Amino acid sequence: MEDTEMQIEDYFQTSLEDYDDFDKLAWSKGNGYTLPSFPLLTDKLEGLESGLYLFAAESNVGKSAVMTNLIYDAATYKPNNLFGIYYSLDDSKFEIIPRIISMDQLIPISVASKPKRYQNMIDNAEENSDIYETMLNKRIVGINNLKNNNSLFKIEDSSKIKCAEDMYEHMKKVQIYVKSLNPDANIIVAIDAINDIKFRDKHFDSVPKENSEIARTVKDWTTQLDIPIFASVHLRKINQNRRPTLDDLANSIEYVYESSVVFLLFNDVSKNKNSAKIYYNKEDYEYKLPVIEMDWAKNKKSSFKGRTYNLFSPEYSKAIECDADTTKRFDALIYEL
């Protein structure tokens, strides 16, 4: 009797409903989110949308800087209707804030983080005092820009976010708050670094198992909240003089499986100093300056599988996307290596 009273699913009808739901969702995406300072990346992605975007590199390549530039660009572009949350698990928020001021105003990070030092040099009438005064004025503009963008961007660190559960609850609360003010708004998240995430009550007997759980969990967040998540991941040190491949994520292979896009980042100047082949020059500066290569090693969002490039100024934590012609020139140089 109980079996006959059970409601039987109309599988034909639910299939139709799935297709209708998909069609509504597809149309609702529009052109995707825009990264106005990164038009080539936006074009190659065919618009930024929800998913996990992984930035993998060795240390000192500039992955955190690239990710910071990207999320700040997306969040502060008002037509996107996005509120950006940067979760810094490596550094405190007070180490991230000066980097953002620096990249916004193109002043040295130390000016943003240690203004008194420069004010003392001005007060002592030291050489270049006029330059330092200009920098401190730009610092004021940078702080005011952050304050004016308080409804678009926020930084949190491990003093508040202790574990994966904290991070997810925080994301949900922020998303509810943002949507209560504007139903069309959403959040975008950056996690630096994803393999620093810990769980409150879960323990693992190996690093690969822990990484697998982190990867699946973060990917689930992108689906449940329907948001883009940028995440940096540490690559093991590569002893050979070569560019990274997906095989270098051996202990973190689940990150590759769960990601929508995997960018493998390489900085030839950081790796090879003055022997670097991929670099740029600045007038009146004798040394080679770094270019951050972004190898689109995995891309489920579009058909593009090549490289894009960013001129990098480490002292400003600033990444500037190369145009199409410069991209072709760097591509040709790498092909010749």
Provide a concise account of the structure shown:
The protein has 337 residues and is an alpha/beta fold. 45% of the residues lie in helices and 19% in strands.
Please supply descriptive tags for the structure shown above:
337 residues, alpha/beta, Rossmann fold, 10-stranded mixed sheet, 13 helices, 10 strands, globular
Structural overview:
The protein is α/β, with parallel strands linked by helices and 337 residues long. It has one domain: P-loop containing nucleotide triphosphate hydrolases (Rossmann fold, 3-Layer(aba) Sandwich). The chain contains 13 helices and ten strands. It has helices at 2-5, 11-28, 39-45, 63-75, 93-105, 109-113, 115-123, 129-148, 164-181, 207-225, 253-258, 268-272, 324-336, and strands spanning 51-57, 82-88, 153-157, 186-192, 228-234, 261-267, 279-280, 289-299, 307-313, 318-321. Strands 1, 2, 3, 4, 5, 6, 7, 8, 9 and 10 form a ten-stranded mixed beta sheet that branches. Helix 5 (93-105) packs across helix 8 (129-148) and helix 7 runs antiparallel to helix 8. The longest helix is centred in the middle third of the chain and has 20 residues, at 129-148. The radius of gyration is 22 Å and the shape is globular. The termini are far apart. The model has no long low-confidence stretch (mean pLDDT 91).
